[in-house]
Amino acid sequence: MEKFNNRFLRLSLFLSVIAVCVVLTGLFVNSSKIDTPAVNPAPEVVNHYIRPVEIPAAMEFAGEKIALQNFDVKEALDRELLVNSYFQSQTLMYLKKANRYFHVIVPILKEHDIPEDFKYLCLAESGFQEKIVSPAGATGLWQLMKKAAIENGLEVNNEVDERFNMERSTQAACRYLKNSFRQYGSWIIVAASYNAGINGIKRQSELQDSRNYFDLLLNDETSRYVYRILALKLILENPERYGFQVADAERYPILTCKEITLDKPVSNLAAFAHENGINYKILKYFNPWLRQSSLKNTLRKRYVLKIPVAGTRTFDTGNN
User: Fold this and answer.
1) Each residue's pLDDT tens digit, 145-154
2) How much is the pLDDT for 249?
3) Where are the domains of the chain?
4) Predicted pLDDT at 255
5) What angle do CA 154, 185, 118 make, to 5 degrees?
6) Tens digits of per-residue pLDDT, 207-258?
């Protein structure tokens, strides 16, 4: 009888343990069902879509056709269009500044028989930043190296650096471009040579037995360079097609200046500025090629300085 009782107690205890486990398992399963999210939640409404940009069926640069029938050319242009279309803040600034700079650059290009499309090369080089200096030392709107600048007629020293002079640097760039065209006879190759150097393109042309830019294997920077120029041309000529809307009133105005010829030393440019109705900051803004606070001009060279006319700074009161 005692053995029976012991067996009964052990069986009862075993069944109790099983019952508790069953209850706990049920609670865990139910809890998991409550916390588990729906497998297919309703999709959220998307109000903004990122879409590919339009690639033209055909285009030209400086009167030369772009080989868009080739997949590699089309995809390279697509890349630069995407980069510049979706870098909205930068491209908006280009659109706002364009008239101010092209107003000066285009007539000089025309004077030197350089195709107008090269204004986009200037934009690709500097982004309309007049005072920019690259890590390699390329300077100004046209990013001229010191040697190339001097070879093409600019003064570059500690006191005067005409790479910062918009008119003079554009003239020097035109001389470089014309020299390159005399060697290659292709404006697209000329554009590439502005990045890689005339000798750099010549070496690759001879090595690869080709004078066609679209058939040359070049370093990554030069390979992308011409396509960046093409992308900027497409966007600035058709901004709304690429999602940009800039009203005329939102574009930066052309700044009106008078010119003063200076052929003598100036010991204090701040005092000179005040004598001409402006201040030192504004004098340097319009004449960034003046690199010091004075101009020794021991050789009595003739320099042309820009002085903004009354009202240019404020547009209403004449207070410059």
Assistant:
1) 999 999 999 9
2) 94
3) 60-250, 257-308
4) 94
5) 50
6) 999 999 999 999 999 999 999 999 999 999 999 999 999 999 999 999 999 9
At 202, give phi and psi (nearest 5°).
-60, -45
φ, ψ of residue 88 to 5 degrees: the values are -60, -40
Q: Judge if pTM exceeds 0.85.
A: no
Pair 280, 273: CB distance under 8 Å: yes
pLDDT digits (tens, 9 = 90+) for 131-184: 999 999 999 999 999 999 999 999 999 999 999 999 999 999 999 999 999 999
Q: How many CA atoms lie within 13 A of 290 on its CB side?
A: 27
Q: 193: alpha, beta or left, given left = phi > 0 and alpha = psi -120 to 50?
A: alpha
The neighbouring-strand residues paired with 156 are: 161
pLDDT band for position 4 (50/70/90)?
A: very low
- Does CATH number 1.10.530.10 belong to domain 60-250? yes
Distances (CA, A) of 21 to 25, 28, 254: 6, 11, 85
DSSP notation for 200-258: HHHHHHHHHT---GGG----HHHHHHHHHHHHHHHHHHSGGGGT----GGGSPPPPPEE
Q: In Å, how far are 40, 93, 294 from 157, measured between CA atoms?
A: 70, 31, 14
